[in-house]
Every structure is written in structure tokens, then in C-alpha cells.
Amino acid sequence: MSRSFARVRGLGFILWHARHEFYHVLLGITWAWILREWWGLFNIKWVVVSVFGSLLPDAEHLFYFFANRRNDEYTKQIIRALREHEWRLLTVFIEKGHKYNTNLAFHNIYVIFFLFFAATLCVIVDWRSWVVLIGAMIIHYLFDIFDDIITLGYVNPNWKRWGRARKHLQKVKIIKN
After folding, report:
1. Closest-CA residue to 137 (of 104, 112, 163)
2. Geometric angle at alpha carbon 20, from 25 and 152, rounded to 5°
3. How far apart are CA 39 and CA 67, in angstroms?
4. Are the C-beta atoms of 45 and 52 separated by less than 8 Å?
5. Are 96 and 173 in contact (CB under 8 A)?
6. Contact of 159 with 107, CB cutoff 8 Å
């Protein structure tokens, strides 16, 4: 019993520092509820699609991690923490450091405009599942911008550019033992 407890000992700490993803899930569920009120219909599929859509933009972080694991200082530090089983340090580093990982291609205002246009088109055509998915993605990106303002005090420059950042503009905070 004590051995399994030791494995989960830092679980509360990790969940607390991973709360950003829970906010996205909560916003996705709220989006599904707003649409339920607007359409006067409830479909559990829309709740699932909304939660999926609210987490989908963060898949870009994973793709970036796996595509750049040998070339990027941010991913090298994550790999080091994973190898050394530093779960708590890894959780805090990802929570704080992902704001400085500004090389994500789709985390920008142009993608939000494109998604808004696509969602508007889906409303006109009455593709409700697509409205749910795309709207949840838009809310995800808007929440990330709001979170940047709260945590950094300004809108992260990656939101104002198209594509990936130039090499000399990338900033990474180094993990110290």
C-alpha cells in the first residue's frame, strides 16, 4: 500500500500545475452548453466534440516536441526531466516554459480569423458538429491569449506573426537543478 501511495504522492501537485488543460476542458463544456441553449437541443456527441476541440490546439505542442526533440533547447530540457524522473520539476517547467516556446505555427491570430470564418460558414450551412469543434478551438486560442496577458503582462509576440518564429527570436528559460 505504501509503495503505490509513494507513486501518487505528487499527483495533487502535478494536477494543480496542469490546471490550464482543465480550464480548456471546462471552457469546452461551457461552449457545448451555450450551443445547447442556442439550438434547443442536447447531444452528448457535441459535448465530446467540444472537449476534443478545446484540447486539439495543444496537440501542436506535442507535434513540436516530437519533431524538434534534438534541435530545440526547450524539448531537450523536457527530455532530461523525463529521463531523470523529475515529474514535479517537469510539470512546473512546462507550465511556466510553454509561454516562451513561441515557435508554434498555428498559435497566432491569423488562425483564429480563419477558424472564425470557417465557423461562420458552418453556421450558415448548419453543420452543427463542425460549429462545436471549431468554436471550441477558437475559445481555446482566445483563452491562451487571455492567459498570456494575465501571466506575462502582455500578449505574446507569437500571436502576431504568421508561421514559425525565426531562430534568434526564440527564448527558453533554463531548468536549474
Report:
1. 112
2. 140
3. 41
4. no
5. yes
6. yes
Q: Where are the alpha helices (DSSP H) in the chain?
A: 2-8, 11-17, 19-39, 44-55, 59-67, 73-83, 87-97, 109-125, 128-152
Question: Taking Cα atoms as reference points, which of 16, 69, 24, 84 lies closest to residue 50?
Answer: 24
Residue ranges of the domains in the chain? Answer: 2-169
Q: Give, in order, the Cα–Cα distances in Å from 111 to each of 61, 66, 105.
A: 16, 22, 9
CA 69 to chain centre: 19
Query: How far apart are the C-alpha atoms of 156 and 86, rounded to whole Å?
Result: 28
Radius of gyration of the chain, Cα coordinates, nearest whole angstrom: 18
The 10s digit of each residue's pLDDT in 58-89 is 888 888 878 776 777 777 888 888 888 888 88
The amino acid occupying position 1 is M
C-alpha cell at 10: 505528487
CA angle 140, 54, 145 (to 5 degrees): 10
Instruction: Kindly tell me if the per-residue pLDDT of 173 is higher than 60.
Output: no
Q: pTM for the full model?
A: 0.80
| CA–CA gap between residue 122 and residue 106 (Å, rounded) | 21
